[in-house]
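hey so i finally got around to running the thing on that chain from the lab meeting. sorry it took forever, my laptop kept dying and i had to restart like 3 times. anyway pasting the input first so we r on the same page abt which one it is
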Amino acid sequence: MSVKIISDSTCDLSPALIEKYGVRIIPLHIVLDDKEYEDGLSITPDEIYKWSDEHNATPKTSALNMEYAVDVFRPILEAGDEIICFSISGEMSTTVNVMRLAAEELNAEDRVFVIDSRNLSTGIGLQVIEAAIMAAEGKSGAEIAAHIADIQPRVRASFVIDTLKFLHRGGRCSGMAAFAGTALKLHPKIVVADGKMAPTKKYMGGIGRVVMSYVKDMEAELKHAETDRVFITHSGCSEALIADVRSYLEGLGIFKEILETRAGCVVSSHCGPNTLGVLFIEKA
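ok and heres what got predicted. didnt touch it at all, straight out
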């Protein structure tokens, strides 16, 4: 018996990391003009940006279909294996409940460990990789679930937004705030805490300067991070800016791995282009 790791597509792991750690991805859906697309498979973030600007709207996203989840779980269970399955925060989507219902449908609640990540993007991805490493070491589903429960409160996920118009279109920012933010070149830092997104500090200026200020402001936190890995996750930033962030993180001499990923369609549809975050796990 082994443990298989599954996550919905909002974990934003790159194809290389998905292959390296043997993770099965279940795509969430994006709805444009009443047509559904699979996140990361049949549509790209750049196509979403184009549609959003043309329609002055944010695409709808839909949770996982239960029948799809059942079809993914069933052959794994029939092979005698256990499942660790991650979802985007239950505060943001009903996906976690769908996964639980799928496990119940298969009478496998004792073998399918559904984990509400209480996070999004590579805030989930950090947990997924930890689980995959433990699975490869032969740990049981219960052991892995217990470890994830321990590290989950220490996952630090935040990012800075270039434009407020995508948050406004999605109803997460008032029109006046979006207008004022654009006029003043304000860029909020968004932090994921207790499964929810909340704005904290506001930066002013061009996105390049803002991103570097955001990263440098986290230096004390970064110096208290677990050293295995840190993520640079972005929604289409310039290569030069990403290289600057990487160079800064390398200069700290803390992390064994600095991983870069591009956010998928679900996350990108809400934050818009040129968003960047640095995500890590804090030491206990």
